[in-house]
């Protein structure tokens, strides 16, 4: 019976079939050891010349790194082995044996080399653990919304209106229509959908032609956005801290072994629960100035400033009420001070930067038109978006969570490029 390695402990004493690849192997005249992987784990296969036929033993000795193979044998409990079991082989059937050395075979390949071989690098244990954590994060996100009465609404990738800012758009030639853009955000479409369905979310790729080559930026990254009709700023903050706490808890419960394998300091993640601390933008600027940062009220924060703010807390921190001019056109002004908007950035602990951008949205028609003009955006391409303010407009709020930044934080990755299977960065779209 075909069994996956992670389930072997349920088959002690039984005969099983494994299908996978050689991770490492060594042999002498009488015995061969094959460390075999199948995507779910690694197990040692013992092939003894005295207990298999000649053909099988010859086959076992021919295998090299990343040969594909099928093994049939008995599961034995072995306390010293990782996973507590090993396989005593009866049959070893090579599927394909490489004719050259596997390119990823040293501990010290350069990052450029590894990125060039990303399609093979994915087979390493570290990448296997990271991709499992990514999978858990994506599952947690959907589960959270479905448990909280949200409807998933998939937003388009080709968009006619600028969703966020004009600075970093990918332009595409779209038949007779002319110029359209790859989505920077699905927010505008979720705003339409929340007026139809109340609570909505999306989860998908977004694109930004950002010339920044930092450990926090990708050109193509996944975003999870939520939008809720009748939600105001305060409701929005609560939703965000509940979501982020849920994701961390879910990963701790369902992918803990992968965090441990990466040596993640789990005690830091165990502290993540609501409520999260909050400071206003203005307070943050004062704090940074006191620490000697060269920053003025009105400037946006860069990575270093975010890290400094995060250092003061052991949970993610909300920075709220940014200056209107530092943020996007759609944000609702604070009724107590129209120079700032009802928004927040959620900054992750340990220097992982902004993981959420959020705000209450302008629901007044005239104010929205005024803002579109103030930001030099073409009002005519927002006709449908303005309609939402003409037909039963209500206060509403939402946010976007950067999926790879969240994964990088939870998994403790130094660079965001490992948080996505095939990263698109400033200098790389291959493979
Ligand atoms: O703060 P941003 O730009 O917000 C929006 O796009 C809103 N329209 C979302 C909304 O309210 N529905 O982006 C949201 C998050 C950021 O906080 C960050 O985590 C992530 O997306 N992000 C990036 N992640 C990786 N690489 C990049 N280049 C990113 N740009 C933003
Ligand atoms: Mg932002």
Automatic annotation (TrEMBL):
Top-rank taxon, per record: Bacteria
Keyword vocabulary terms for this entry: Aminoacyl-tRNA synthetase, ATP-binding, Cytoplasm, Ligase, Nucleotide-binding, Protein biosynthesis
Catalytic activity entry: tRNA(Asn) + L-asparagine + ATP = L-asparaginyl-tRNA(Asn) + AMP + diphosphate + H(+)
Localization, UniProt: Cytoplasm
Gene Ontology biological process terms, A to Z: asparaginyl-tRNA aminoacylation
Residue ranges of every copy of the Aminoacyl-transfer RNA synthetases class-II family profile domain listed in the record: 133-421
Molecular functions per Gene Ontology: asparagine-tRNA ligase activity; ATP binding; nucleic acid binding
Main subcellular location of this protein, as a coarse class: cytoplasm
EC number, UniProt record: 6.1.1.22
Entry GO CC: cytoplasm
Pfam families attached to this UniProt entry: tRNA-synt_2, tRNA_anti-codon
Family per similarity comment: Belongs to the class-II aminoacyl-tRNA synthetase family.
Assembly notes: Homodimer.
HAMAP family linked: Asn_tRNA_synth
Protein name: Asparagine--tRNA ligase
UniProt organism field: Thermosipho africanus (strain TCF52B)
Highest classification ranks of the organism: Bacteria, Thermotogati, Thermotogota, Thermotogae, Thermotogales
Gene responsible for this protein: asnS
């Amino acid at each position: 019976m075909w069994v996956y390695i992670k389930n072997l402990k349920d088959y002690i004493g039984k005969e099983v079939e494994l299908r996978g690849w050689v991770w490492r192997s060594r042999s002498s005249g009488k015995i061969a050891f094959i460390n075999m992987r199948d995507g779910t784990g690694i197990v040692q296969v013992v092939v003894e010349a005295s207990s298999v036929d000649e053909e099988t033993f010859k086959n076992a000795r021919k295998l090299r790194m990343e040969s594909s193979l099928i093994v049939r044998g008995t599961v034995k409990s072995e306390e010293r082995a990782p996973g507590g079991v090993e396989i005593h082989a009866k049959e070893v059937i090579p599927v394909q044996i490489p004719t050259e050395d596997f390119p990823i075979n040293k501990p010290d390949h350069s990052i450029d080399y590894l990125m060039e071989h990303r399609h093979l690098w994915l087979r390493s244990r570290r990448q296997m653990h990271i991709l499992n954590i990514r999978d858990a994060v994506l599952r947690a996100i959907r589960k959270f919304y479905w448990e909280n009465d949200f409807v998933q609404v998939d937003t388009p990738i080709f968009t006619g209106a600028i969703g966020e800012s004009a600075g970093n758009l990918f332009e595409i030639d779209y038949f007779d229509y002319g110029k359209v853009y790859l989505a920077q955000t699905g927010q505008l479409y979720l705003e339409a959908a929340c007026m139809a369905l109340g609570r909505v979310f999306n989860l998908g790729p977004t694109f930004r032609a950002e010339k920044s080559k930092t450990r926090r930026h990708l050109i193509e990254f996944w975003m999870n956005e939520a939008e809720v009709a009748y939600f105001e700023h305060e409701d929005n903050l609560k939703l965000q801290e509940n979501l982020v706490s849920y994701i961390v808890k879910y990963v701790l419960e369902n992918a803990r072994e992968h965090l441990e394998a990466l040596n993640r300091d789990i005690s830091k993640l165990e502290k993540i629960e609501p409520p999260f601390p909050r400071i206003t933008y203005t307070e943050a600027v004062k704090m940074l100035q006191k620490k000697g940062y060269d920053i003025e009220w009105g400037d946006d924060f860069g990575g270093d400033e975010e890290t400094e703010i995060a250092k003061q807390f052991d949970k993610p921190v909300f920075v709220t009420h940014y200056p209107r001019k530092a943020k996007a056109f759609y944000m609702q002004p604070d009724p107590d001070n129209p120079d700032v908007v009802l928004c927040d950035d959620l900054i992750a602990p340990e220097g992982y930067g902004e993981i959420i951008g959020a705000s209450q949205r302008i629901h007044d028609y005239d104010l929205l038109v005024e803002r579109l003009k103030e930001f030099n955006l073409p009002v005519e391409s927002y006709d449908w978006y303005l309609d939402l303010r003409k037909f039963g407009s209500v206060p509403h709020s939402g946010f976007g969570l950067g999926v790879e930044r969240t994964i990088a934080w939870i998994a403790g990755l130094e660079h965001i490029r490992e948080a996505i299977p095939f990263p698109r960065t400033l200098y790389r779209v291959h493979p």
